[in-house]
Amino acid sequence: MTRNKRLRKLSTAMLTVPMLMMFASGAMAEQEMNGHKPPVSTGSGVFYEIYINSFYDSNGDGHGDLKGITQKLDYLNDGKPSSGQDLQISGLWLMPLNPSPSYHKYDVTDYYQVDPQYGNLNDFRTLMKEAHRKGIKVIMDLVINHSSSDHPWFKEASANPQSKYRDYYVWADKNTDLDEKGSWGQQVWHKNTNGEGYFYGTFWSGMPDLNFDNPEVREEMIKVGKYWLQQGADGFRLDAAMHIFKGQTKEGADKNIAWWNEFRSEMEKVNPNVYLAGEVWDKPETIAPYFGPLHSLFNFDLGGTMLNSIKNGRDQGIATFAEKTLKLYKSYNKAALDAPFLSNHDQTRVMSELGGDVRKAKLAASILLTLPGQPFLYYGEEIGMKGEKPDEYLREPMRWYKGDGPGQTTWEKPKYNTGEVSVEAQFRNDDSLLQSYRTLIRLREEHESLRSDSLETIQTGTASVTAYKRTSGKETLHVFHNLSGESVTLQIKDLVKGKWKVVFSTSEDVKVKKGTIEIPAYSSLITKEDRKS
After folding, report:
1. Residue 88: strand, helix, or coil
2. Which of the following is catalytic: 239, 262, 388, 475?
3. Residue-level pLDDT at 43
4. Where would one find the signal peptide in this protein (predicted)?
């Protein structure tokens, strides 16, 4: 038996005991069982994902950096809700910032430093301080499923079978099927070009998987997490959270959940309000158990349902799906906080999905920002940036100006985004997509019902409209979105009694009469009962 196998056997036993305890009552990870507290959420609850390299360049080298983000915090949240000039976001998700040989930095060579291209630790600490001063929480991408093949650990491990770092990684033995394929049919065993043997890498040979069956690896990654919390981070976006162990199997999924429980418990020793958002790109039934240890998980399927509904002009079950998945997630953890989004750094950008139609992009924003959960925006989404595969073109430079200007990043020549789409072009345009996002995020901040976890589908009798109720305390909002290219008139029983006022609409042509509403094409409407009348 190899040392890897011995470690695996011991570690499996260590991880399985808590899992059995968690399953004992039939409610695997409910809040009362795991003792975890929900994160404290303030403001709008909206997070903004930034690819640092593309955002804002503070030193003129063409690359975005941490100082650049600090300089543009007022664009994101100026700390003045009444100014109307900022997005009023509540949180930032910083894509990987550790040293890395790649442009995307999802293959780390040093878990305790900032990539010199982005700045240094003092720049990071300054950004945390200034963000917190404006009420912005910051989570950073934590990439611990694998390291870079250029990491000193792997370099030593691949060259010396006797090194202690050999067991930091997963190596084939005589019984290994070297033709094994991963979750999406990819090759997972890779020949060691620096010595003997084959190693496991879920994503590719440049990203060797770390061996979490080794207690030393788990201890090291807990140390890494605590370190960044001590530097000021408020939490982490956990990359490839279901691939720490083979999450497509029950044993692997159970071990993943046990590991993330251990990780969260250790992080809470440093920051009781730490926020952990996990990437589990799978069906809801696979995602749900991860709500035991994690606060939020990205709702990939809901994003697809929203965009497909808008593209087709017919509701594919947006509210029904959101309501069903939320109920499922809360069966595992009463404090489950969904993380809906429209697109991210791995997906075709929203404006490209919607064929460049600004009306549809505004509609997408209206749906996203009126659903439950903690919504995530992808940088540039608010101005309608486009992007399609390969990945480099999903991460093009943020467009600040119609032409060139201070801070504009130039590391990549844009293929999809030039001056006609920019912050400068939309900043003072009340009919712009940017203004729509500003308005919607403030609306979410003003109405607790939009930030609550309540959701009840409204039957409209037509697939052209998706509609739902949002409630908190005495306030109930009725939300309607016309997905079609034609005006729609609805008869709504709830609106027959009392007087109803328009809280928000994206069109001046909406009409609300007793029991009847008329919504123009691609428009949204929110009403509530006027109790003062």
Report:
1. coil
2. 239
3. 64
4. 1-29
Q: What is the pLDDT of residue 530?
A: 67
The tokens describing 98, both together, are: 């550790």
Q: Is the peptide bond before 390 cis (omega within 30 degrees of 0)?
A: yes
- Predicted pLDDT at 38: 53
Tell me how far apart the alpha carbons of residues 105 and 281 are, in angstroms, rounded to a whole number.
Answer: 20
CA–CA separation, 49 and 72 (whole Å): 14
pTM of the entire predicted model: 0.92
CA 307 centroid distance within chain:
17
Residue among 218, 231, 235 nearest 295 (CA) = 235
Q: Which residue in the block uniquely carries the two structure tokens 């390291």?
A: 147
Active site residue 239: yes
- In the chain, what are the helix, strand and coil shares in percent, each to the nearest 5? 35, 15, 50
CA–CA gap between residue 311 and residue 207 (Å, rounded): 36
Return the closest-CA partner of residue 147 out of 258, 240, 251.
240
What pLDDT is stored for residue 28 in this prediction?
37
Alpha-helical (H) ranges within 163-214 are none
Q: What is the pLDDT of residue 5?
A: 42
Full DSSP string of 51-84? -HHHH--SSSSSS--HHHHHHTHHHH--S-TTS-
pLDDT for the residue 492: 83
C-beta separation of 284 from 325 below 8 A: yes
Give the Cβ contact number of residue 431 at 10 Å.
9
Of 481, 448, 475, nearest to 463 by C-alpha is 481
pLDDT digits (tens, 9 = 90+) for 272-293: 999 999 999 999 999 999 999 9
Q: To which H or E segment does residue 511 belong?
A: strand 511-513
- Residue 143, SS3 per DSSP: coil
Helix or strand run (H / E) with residue 218? helix 215-230
Sheet holding 500-505, edge to edge: 456-457, 465-472, 475-482, 524-529, 500-505
Instruction: Tell me the Cα Rg of the chain.
Output: 24
Query: Cβ distance 18 to 11 under 8 Å?
Result: no
Positions of the chain with pLDDT lower than 70, given as ranges: 1-43, 495-498, 530-533
CB 241 within 8 A of CB 232: no
Across the beta sheet with 137-142, what order do the strands follow?
296-297, 275-278, 235-238, 137-142, 91-94, 47-50, 376-378
**Token pair in block for residue 73:** 């915090």
Residues 455, 324 contacting (CB under 8 angstroms): no
According to DSSP, residue 524 is labeled: E
CA torsion sign, 315 to 317 to 320 to 321?
negative
Residue with tokens 């976890």: 453
Query: Residue 279 catalytic?
Result: yes
Crossing angle of helices 300-312 and 318-332, rounded to 10°: 170
User: Which of 279, 323, 353, 529 is flagged as catalytic?
Assistant: 279
